[in-house]
Amino acid sequence: MLKEKNTLFTIGQFAVLHEINKKTLMWYDEIGLLKPACIKKNGYRYYSYQQSATLETILMLRELNVSLDEIKRFMGHRTIESFDYLLKSKIAELSQTISHLKSMQKVLCNHQQDMEMLRSLDISTISLVQKQSCYLVTVPVTPDSSFDEEIEQVITETKKYQLRRLHDASYGSMLPVENLYQRKFDEYTSLYIEIPYPISKKGLHLQPSGTYLRAFYKGSWDKISDKYKEILAYVDKQGFSLYGFAYETGINEFVIDTIDEYITQIEIPVRLE
Asked: Could you tell me which InterPro entries the record lists for this protein (predicted)?
């Protein structure tokens, strides 16, 4: 072991040992991040056994996307406190990245389920399904709200919940059931954002678990009232009632070219009587 600790490695051997390119070591030498233990008369660079730990520290920090300047500052003043601070900040960044990836995984799984459903979907079908509860961020809208104002509010909410892009969550509209019964089919009260993993449940809308009526409408939204009339007739015939909200969301917007092909999924909680 003592002999190994006194061994000097050529730049090629040191690069192979740490599975990096020789040019990387030459670059680190050039910028003063990791200089060879010695340079012999023939100009060859040699690295010591003790420098392995230093290089592994640098490589770990680079893998964590720490900048070279930041690494140089740390390597020039290595202390328990500075390393602890660096680790804590990177752990926090990794936690945020992991949370984002989990959210993206859930959104992608939802999209995949939609695609599987679309392959055999009969949009004329009205069915009953069981749903788990989930929390939604809601953005109030009024008949006077402009499209630009609504989009601005949605973007504000996505940033509040640390979503990086709009496609990191599912979106839709909410129509109160009392408005349906009063034939006010265009009087929506909220847009909703389904956050895959909400940071806090405070202030969020709880979409309840239970039995839901599920229906589909194809085309632009100006005639969606016809689908709601069909739903009300179906409910009346079946002898059960609706409550809460009708939740609308698009399920094929990633695979269409025109609004005429757009499919809206409608889900409404029902009370079986």
From this structure: DNA-bd_dom_put_sf, MerR-type_HTH_dom, MerR_fam, Reg_factor_effector_dom_sf
